C-alpha cells in the first residue's frame, strides 16, 4: 500500500492530468480513478464500453486485474485510458 | 554653428573599440557574458546595425511618443472605458499586463548586457537605446494598469505576477530567464531580439493593437502601438549578429539558438495571445484569427527573414504549422477549466455564434474542442457547476511549463514526450520541447515544474486550496468566468426553442 503518482491520458480528453493511485490498485481501479477527472467533465460517457489501461510508450494494454506494482511503471509515468469493447 | 549631418559622424563616433592595455581582451569581454565564440574582434567590428539613431534624435522622438501615450490616457481617463468594456476585453488587458510588464524590466537587463559586453560597438550603441526603451515599456505598463487597481485587485498583478509562483508566471519566467537572463550578449541579440521580438512581439502588440482599436480601447491601442515602434527598432540587433556568426562558420550554432527561441516563444504565445485573440476579444472586434495572424507575421514574414539571412526554416516547421490549429485551443480550454489558478477572468468565448466563427476559422473545431465544451455547457445548464472546475493538476511540460495538451474528441491525439535523464523522468508537450532540453540538459535539468514541486511536497495542503496559496492568489484575485456565465443564455434559448 503506497501512493503512486501516474499521469492520465484519457481518450477524447484534451489534456494529461496527474492522478494519484495506489500500488495495490488493479488496472480497472486505475482507470476508474482517471475517469473521475475526465468523464462527465470534458468527455462524454460511452455506455457499454469498458475502460482499459495502456502503456503510453510501448502501446501494450495491461490485464484488467494487474496491480500497479506489478506493471513496472516509473513514478509519474503516463498511461492511456481507452474506451474498449472488452 | 553648423551641425554635421548624422551620416558624416555617426560611424566614427560609435567606433568605440580600443586596444586594452591594463587587462586582457578576455577580461574585458568575458566569454560567458560576451559570447564572442572565438570570432576575432575585427569581425565583430563589422557589425552594421540597420537602424541608426543618435542620442538627440532618440530623446526627441521618445519624448513625443511618451507624451502621446500619456496624454491619450489622461484625456480618456474620465471616459472610464474600462467600466463599460466587455469583460472579455478587460481580462485581455489584465492578462497582458501581468505577463508582460515585468518581463520588460528583465529586458532592460538583457539590453544592459549587450550595452556593456557585446564585442560589436554597433550592438553596444543600439542596446543603450534598447535599455531605455525597455525601461519605458515597464514603466508604462505598470502605470497604466495602476489606475485600475481601484476597480479590482486583479489589476495589481501587473506588478505581482512575476513575483508569484502562479503557473503562468513560472512558465513566463522559465522562458524569459532562458533567453534573456542567462545568455551571453550575442545569444541575447539572437534569441531575445531576433527570434522573440521580431517574430512574436509583433504578434502580441500589433494583433492586440488592431483588436483594441476595434474594441474602442484607444488608450490601450495607443499604448501598445507606441511600445511597438521601439520594439521594431531594437529588435534589429539580432540580424547583424547572425550575419557575423554565419560568415564565420557558426551557422549551425546560430540556427540552434534561433530554433530553440522560436519554439519556446511560440508556446508562451499559444497561452497568451491565442486565447486573447480567438476567445476573449469580443467577436465583433476580432480582426483576424490567431492562426491568421501567425500565418501572416510568423510564417510569411519571419520565415522570409530567416531565409534571407541565410538560415534555414527550423527543423520542426511542419509541426509548428500543424500546431497552429491545435495548441492554443488546448491552452484556452485549460486556462478556463483551471480558472481559479489565474489572475484574470477567462472568457469562455463559446456561444453558438462564436462557435460558428471558430468552426469557420478552424474547420473541425466542433467535432474536437466543441466535444469538450458540450460537456461543460451541459453541466452548467444542468446545475452541476462543480464538474466544470478542477480537482487535480494538469501535467505540465518540463520545458514550456505549460499543460501538455492535444486535440480532444474525435481527433484525439494527446501525447506525452517522455525522456529519462540521469534517473529522472521528464515530460514534454512536443518533440521540439524535448529537443530544447536535449540540446542542453545541464541548463534545464534541475528545474522543478509545478507538478514536480507538488510531488516533492512543496505545496501544502496538497490540494487546490494549497495550490492557490502557493500561487499567491488571494480572494478577489482568483479567476472566474469573465461574463459570470451569462453566455449560457444563448444555450438556454436554444434548449427552450427546441423543447
Ligand atoms: Fe519592450
Ligand atoms: Fe523589446
What does this structure look like?
- The complex is a heterodimer of chains A (86) and B (499).
- The termini of chain A are far apart.
- Chain A is 12% helix and 31% strand.
- Chain A has a four-stranded mixed sheet, with helices on one face.
- The mean pLDDT of chain A is 97.
- Chain A has one helix and four strands, in the order E-E-H-E-E.
- Chain B starts with 5 loop residues before the first helix and ends with a helix.
- Chain B has helices at 6-13, 25-28, 31-34, 41-44, 55-77, 81-84, 87-117, 121-146, 157-160, 167-181, 185-215, 218-234, 238-247, 251-280, 290-308, 317-323, 327-337, 352-361, 369-381, 431-439, 441-444, 450-455, 464-471, 489-498; strands at 417-421, 424-428.
- Chain B is 62% helix and 2% strand.
- In chain B, strands 1-2 form a two-stranded antiparallel ribbon.
- Chains A and B meet through strand 1 and strand 2 of A and helix 17, helix 19 and helix 22 of B.
Helicity level of chain B, as a percent range? 55-70%
Shape of chain B: globular
Largest interface: A-B, 26 and 38 residues
What is the CATH class designation of chain A?
A: Alpha Beta
The number of distinct structural domains of chain A comes to 1
What name goes with the CATH superfamily of chain A?
TmoB-like
Name of the CATH superfamily of chain B:
Ribonucleotide Reductase, subunit A
What Rg of chain A do the Cα atoms give?
Answer: 12 Å
Mean pLDDT of chain A: 97
Rounded to the nearest angstrom, the distance between the terminal CA atoms of chain B is: 86 Å
Largest sheet of chain A: 4 strands, mixed
* Principal-axes shape call of chain A: globular
The number of helical runs of chain B is 24
Number of strands of chain A: 4
Ranges of chain A where pLDDT stays below 50 over 5 or more residues in a row are none
Question: Structural class of the secondary structure composition of chain B?
Answer: mainly alpha
Amino acid at each position: 500500500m503506497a501512493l503512486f503518482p501516474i499521469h492520465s491520458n484519457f481518450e477524447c480528453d484534451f489534456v494529461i492530468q496527474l492522478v494519484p493511485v495506489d500500488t495495490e490498485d488493479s488496472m480497472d481501479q486505475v482507470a476508474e480513478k482517471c475517469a473521475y477527472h475526465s468523464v462527465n467533465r470534458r468527455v462524454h460517457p460511452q455506455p457499454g464500453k469498458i475502460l482499459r489501461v495502456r502503456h503510453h510508450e510501448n502501446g501494450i494494454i495491461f490485464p484488467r486485474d494487474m496491480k500497479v506494482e506489478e506493471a513496472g511503471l516509473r513514478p509519474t509515468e503516463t498511461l492511456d485510458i481507452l474506451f474498449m469493447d472488452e | 554653428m553648423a551641425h554635421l549631418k548624422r551620416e558624416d559622424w555617426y560611424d566614427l563616433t560609435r567606433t568605440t573599440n580600443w586596444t586594452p592595455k591594463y587587462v586582457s581582451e578576455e577580461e574585458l569581454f568575458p566569454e560567458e557574458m560576451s559570447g564572442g565564440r572565438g570570432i576575432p574582434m575585427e569581425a565583430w567590428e563589422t557589425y552594421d546595425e540597420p537602424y541608426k539613431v543618435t542620442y538627440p534624435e532618440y530623446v526627441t522622438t521618445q519624448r513625443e511618443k511618451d507624451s502621446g501615450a500619456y496624454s491619450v490616457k489622461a484625456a480618456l481617463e474620465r471616459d472610464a472605458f474600462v467600466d463599460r468594456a466587455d469583460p472579455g476585453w478587460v481580462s485581455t488587458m489584465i492578462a497582458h499586463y501581468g505577463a508582460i510588464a515585468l518581463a520588460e524590466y528583465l529586458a532592460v537587463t538583457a539590453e544592459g548586457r549587450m550595452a556593456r559586453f557585446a564585442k560589436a560597438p554597433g550592438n553596444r550603441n543600439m542596446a543603450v537605446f534598447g535599455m531605455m526603451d525597455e525601461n519605458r515599456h515597464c514603466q508604462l505598463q505598470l502605470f497604466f494598469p495602476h489606475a485600475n487597481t481601484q476597480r479590482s485587485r486583479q489589476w495589481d498583478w501587473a506588478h505581482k505576477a512575476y513575483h508569484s509562483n502562479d503557473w503562468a508566471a513560472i512558465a513566463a519566467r522559465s522562458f524569459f530567464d532562458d533567453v534573456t537572463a542567462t545568455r551571453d550578449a550575442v545569444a541575447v541579440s539572437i534569441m531575445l531580439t531576433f527570434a522573440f521580438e521580431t517574430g512574436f512581439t509583433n504578434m502580441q502588440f500589433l494583433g492586440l493593437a488592431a483588436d483594441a482599436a476595434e474594441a474602442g480601447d484607444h488608450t490601450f491601442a495607443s499604448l501598445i502601438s507606441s511600445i511597438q515602434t521601439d520594439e521594431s527598432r531594437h529588435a534589429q540587433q539580432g540580424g547583424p549578429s547572425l550575419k557575423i556568426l554565419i560568415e564565420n562558420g557558426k551557422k549551425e550554432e546560430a540556427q540552434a539558438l534561433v530554433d530553440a527561441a522560436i519554439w519556446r516563444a511560440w508556446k508562451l504565445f499559444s497561452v497568451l495571445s491565442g486565447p486573447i485573440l480567438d476567445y476573449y476579444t469580443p467577436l465583433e472586434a476580432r480582426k483576424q484569427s490567431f492562426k491568421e495572424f501567425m500565418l501572416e507575421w510568423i510564417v510569411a514574414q519571419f520565415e522570409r527573414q530567416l531565409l534571407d539571412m541565410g538560415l534555414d526554416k527550423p527543423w520542426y516547421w511542419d509541426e509548428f504549422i500543424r500546431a497552429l490549429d491545435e495548441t492554443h485551443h488546448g491552452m484556452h480550454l485549460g486556462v478556463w477549466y483551471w480558472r481559479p489558478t489565474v489572475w484574470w477572468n477567462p472568457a469562455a468565448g463559446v456561444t453558438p455564434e462564436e462557435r460558428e466563427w471558430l468552426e469557420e476559422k478552424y474547420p473541425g473545431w466542433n467535432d474536437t474542442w466543441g466535444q469538450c465544451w458540450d460537456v461543460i455547457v451541459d453541466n452548467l445548464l444542468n446545475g452541476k457547476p462543480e464538474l466544470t472546475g478542477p480537482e487535480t493538476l494538469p501535467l505540465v511540460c518540463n520545458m514550456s511549463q505549460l499543460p501538455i495538451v492535444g486535440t480532444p474528441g474525435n481527433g484525439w491525439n494527446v501525447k506525452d514526450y517522455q525522456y529519462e535523464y540521469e534517473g529522472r523522468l521528464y515530460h514534454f508537450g512536443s518533440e521540439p520541447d524535448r529537443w530544447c532540453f536535449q540540446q542542453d540538459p545541464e541548463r534545464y535539468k534541475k528545474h522543478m515544474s509545478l507538478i514536480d514541486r507538488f510531488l516533492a511536497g512543496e505545496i501544502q495542503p496538497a490540494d487546490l486550496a494549497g495550490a492557490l496559496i502557493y500561487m499567491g492568489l488571494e480572494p478577489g484575485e482568483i479567476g472566474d468566468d469573465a461574463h459570470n456565465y451569462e453566455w449560457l443564455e444563448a444555450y438556454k434559448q436554444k434548449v427552450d426553442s427546441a423543447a
